[in-house]
């Protein structure tokens, strides 16, 4: 990790509390991009800050007490904090708590509910996908704008916390259950390749099983069992589970495979899926071409090739304006 910098902890706290200025957000982003260790540090720090309860405290006194205890080599207790008239005071207090937690080596107690874990691992993505290997040998494919934390607790359980979307190829070990927590919903592996996606806007968690079997449940509900070829969806508003066959959305794993199957798919739907996977900005100039239907398959094709095939198939034209790829014409 880069050499410790108190300024970075202050930036992390201010960003987490929504009190950072645009230039401060950019400063933190630039520091994160210097190394994978920096990105890991920020991701873990934000998780700790998100778990801290707030009650009244004098932030100056908190800092002074913290310094005294660290210099004396004592294991200082965590002092909860509360909002003062300005939220910026909370950010400083949160930063003090963050320094205390990391400095005393008890960072991951928040992650595992007080059970000191081992083999910790964390990673996050922004504008690109990522393939990585967990400490247990399982592999993950993390979608853009996602973050993942992994740890093994004293019971031998492998616990993953996911925000965003990831595909898992789990190295099965019956003595060490592999459990994913995503928005308070749990997915337990039984020797499986499967995809998990959280959608905060829709308040849903979706699990697509490619091989094997998973259990999909909450603390209060038994949930459902999913096998290869099935998709499960948990609705956080209605607190219900549903199950469908994977054919209902053949492109649910396209972000990982770059394979698309369009079968009488509207051009608007196809373009939305391509934009999500390729990070492109394809725009339909005319409303009358949105419902044109396209039937074709793409397998790891370059985006320019895809655009050419679509325009030829639907009798359209394309042009580039800045970052936009504009499709236009009479079409269907």
Shape: globular
The N- to C-terminal Cα distance equals 56 Å
Which percent range fits the helix content?
A: 25-40%
Strand content: 25-35%
**Sequence stretches where pLDDT stays below 50 over 5 or more residues:** 52-59, 74-88, 99-114
CA gyration radius, whole angstroms: 23 Å
Q: List the total number of helices.
A: 8
Strand tally: 17
Look up the CATH topology of the largest domain: Jelly Rolls
Q: Identify the CATH architecture of the largest domain.
A: Sandwich
One letter per element, helices H and strands E, the order comes to HHHHHEEEEEEEEEEEEHEHEEHEE
Number of domains: 3
Largest sheet: 12 strands, mixed
User: Please, what is the average pLDDT?
Assistant: 79
What is the level 1 CATH name of the largest domain? Mainly Beta
Strand-pairing-aware structural class:
alpha+beta
């Amino acid at each position: 990790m880069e050499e410790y910098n108190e300024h970075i902890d202050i930036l992390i706290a201010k960003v987490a509390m929504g009190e950072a200025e645009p230039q401060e957000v950019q400063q933190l982003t630039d520091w994160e991009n210097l190394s994978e260790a920096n990105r890991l540090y920020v991701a873990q720090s934000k998780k700790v800050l998100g778990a801290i309860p707030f009650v009244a405290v004098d932030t100056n006194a908190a800092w002074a007490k913290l310094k005294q205890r660290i210099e004396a080599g004592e294991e200082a207790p965590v002092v909860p904090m509360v909002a003062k008239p300005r939220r910026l005071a909370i950010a400083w207090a949160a930063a003090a708590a963050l320094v205390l937690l990391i400095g005393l080596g008890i960072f991951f107690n928040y992650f595992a509910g007080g059970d000191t874990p081992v083999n910790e691992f964390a990673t996050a993505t922004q504008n690109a996908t990522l393939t990585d290997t967990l400490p247990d040998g399982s592999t993950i494919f993390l979608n853009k704008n996602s973050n993942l934390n992994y740890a093994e607790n004293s019971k031998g359980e492998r616990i993953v916390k996911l925000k965003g979307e990831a595909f898992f190829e789990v190295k099965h070990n019956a003595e060490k259950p592999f459990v994913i927590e995503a928005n308070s919903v749990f997915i337990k592996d039984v020797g499986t390749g499967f995809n998990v996606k959280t959608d905060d806007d829709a308040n849903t968690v979706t699990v697509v099983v490619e091989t094997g079997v998973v259990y999909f449940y909450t603390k209060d509900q038994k949930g459902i069992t999913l096998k290869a070829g099935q998709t499960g969806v948990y609705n956080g508003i209605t607190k219900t589970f549903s199950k469908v066959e994977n054919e209902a959305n053949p492109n649910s794993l396209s972000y990982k495979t770059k394979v698309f199957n369009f079968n009488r798919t509207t051009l608007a739907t196809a373009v939305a899926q391509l934009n999500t996977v390729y990070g492109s900005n394809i725009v339909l100039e005319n409303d009358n071409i949105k419902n044109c239907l396209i039937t074709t398959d793409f397998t790891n094709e370059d985006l320019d090739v895809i655009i050419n095939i679509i325009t030829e198939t639907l009798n359209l034209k394309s042009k580039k304006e800045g970052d936009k790829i504009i499709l236009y014409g009479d079409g269907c």
